[in-house]
Amino acid sequence: MDNFARLLKESWALVEENRVGLSRHLYARLFLLSPELRQHFPTQMTGQGDRLLEAVTTFVHTLGDPETLDEYLRSLGREHRKYQLEERHYENMGVALLDALRSTAGEAWTEEYDQAWRDAYATISEKMLAGAAADENPPYWHAEVLKHERYGPDVAVLTVRALQHPLPWQAGQYIGVEVPRYRPGEWRNYSIANAPNEDNLLEFHVRTPGAGWVSGALVRRTKPGELIRLATPAGSMTLDRESTRDVLCVAGGVGFAPVKALVEELTTYNRTRWVHVFYGARHRDDLYGLAWLEKLVAVHPWLSVTPSCSEDVGFDGEHGDISEVVGRYGPWTEHDCFVSGSARMVRATLRALAEDDVPPHRIRYDTFGDL
């Protein structure tokens, strides 16, 4: 196992920095082999590439924790039921992945690396297929839009109710969303912005920078009373209720959504853990969730909030990228850390936490690749 893990980590280091080329090659090959899958993915694949990077990185770096890895892969299998995948689709993904790895690594790729990834993907597909087969939930839920609130030209907060039997999720997870009236067949992942509740209500914070068709439909066209579809929740950016460590949450833009859910859940049981929220955006108007956080600070003495703007010189608060602001405080070595935002913001924050010697296993994160 040690040699297997070494080969995977060595070979992944060859391609990790060229994530754009890797994902572009992989999906081009996959859609050539299985063209019927193209309809399920965004027109612009940048965010999907970051999801791919997150999934493969998680696999490579979780090899030493078989139990966590097993549940992660089974969860991915459950999540992918919404695509109605067959075994041949998994086989084609394996072909595309190996082809992309070889092409991206170039002459540095070896037969040993190739065999290690063949074995790795065999494990990945086996666990994902097992997770999908064992799931007794429907592949997706129908949900009704109850509220649609706009925050500026590009951001909307939607509240929906799942109409079938209770939809199980944990605070901090994300979920696939389809808008069949406007974008049938295309799914986009969004973090759930509230903690689980008895009313089956879910909240989503959606930003459309112009290129996201599903996001654009949710922000600009969807109205209360319309129906959407929700896939199986996934993601591991969740709280450990057994932990006694203090908590650090770092949110950028609509990356505030899962942090909001985590804080909301903490308000239901926390009494002893200090919780520090760092919330960043370019301009003060983009900090749409700040008023909600400030209300909680007034009634929960364990909660502190530090807002920051990177391009608003008149902002009465911290200035600079939120990753830089987090680095000015701390140390964070004894905290459970949660990071959510754009891929660039998350990478910068992870570097800052690494420089602060925060153990990697105490950091959980989620990326929004199109921001």
Automatic annotation (TrEMBL):
<dbReference type="GO" id="GO:0051537">
    <property type="term" value="F:2 iron, 2 sulfur cluster binding"/>
</dbReference>
<keyword id="KW-0349">Heme</keyword>
<dbReference type="GO" id="GO:0020037">
    <property type="term" value="F:heme binding"/>
</dbReference>
<keyword id="KW-0520">NAD</keyword>
<dbReference type="GO" id="GO:0005344">
    <property type="term" value="F:oxygen carrier activity"/>
</dbReference>
<keyword id="KW-0001">2Fe-2S</keyword>
<keyword id="KW-0521">NADP</keyword>
<feature type="domain" description="Globin">
    <location>
        <begin position="1"/>
        <end position="133"/>
    </location>
</feature>
<dbReference type="InterPro" id="IPR000971">
    <property type="entry name" value="Globin"/>
</dbReference>
<dbReference type="InterPro" id="IPR001433">
    <property type="entry name" value="OxRdtase_FAD/NAD-bd"/>
</dbReference>
<dbReference type="InterPro" id="IPR050415">
    <property type="entry name" value="MRET"/>
</dbReference>
<dbReference type="Pfam" id="PF00042">
    <property type="entry name" value="Globin"/>
</dbReference>
<feature type="domain" description="FAD-binding FR-type">
    <location>
        <begin position="138"/>
        <end position="240"/>
    </location>
</feature>
<keyword id="KW-0561">Oxygen transport</keyword>
<dbReference type="Pfam" id="PF00175">
    <property type="entry name" value="NAD_binding_1"/>
</dbReference>
<dbReference type="Pfam" id="PF00970">
    <property type="entry name" value="FAD_binding_6"/>
</dbReference>
<dbReference type="InterPro" id="IPR009050">
    <property type="entry name" value="Globin-like_sf"/>
</dbReference>
<dbReference type="InterPro" id="IPR012292">
    <property type="entry name" value="Globin/Proto"/>
</dbReference>
<keyword id="KW-0408">Iron</keyword>
<dbReference type="InterPro" id="IPR017938">
    <property type="entry name" value="Riboflavin_synthase-like_b-brl"/>
</dbReference>
<dbReference type="InterPro" id="IPR017927">
    <property type="entry name" value="FAD-bd_FR_type"/>
</dbReference>
<dbReference type="GO" id="GO:0008941">
    <property type="term" value="F:nitric oxide dioxygenase NAD(P)H activity"/>
</dbReference>
<comment type="similarity">
    <text>In the C-terminal section; belongs to the flavoprotein pyridine nucleotide cytochrome reductase family.</text>
</comment>
<comment type="similarity">
    <text>Belongs to the globin family.</text>
</comment>
<protein>
    <recommendedName>
        <fullName>nitric oxide dioxygenase</fullName>
        <ecNumber>1.14.12.17</ecNumber>
    </recommendedName>
</protein>
<dbReference type="InterPro" id="IPR039261">
    <property type="entry name" value="FNR_nucleotide-bd"/>
</dbReference>
<dbReference type="InterPro" id="IPR008333">
    <property type="entry name" value="Cbr1-like_FAD-bd_dom"/>
</dbReference>
<keyword id="KW-0813">Transport</keyword>
<dbReference type="GO" id="GO:0019825">
    <property type="term" value="F:oxygen binding"/>
</dbReference>
<keyword id="KW-0479">Metal-binding</keyword>
<keyword id="KW-0411">Iron-sulfur</keyword>
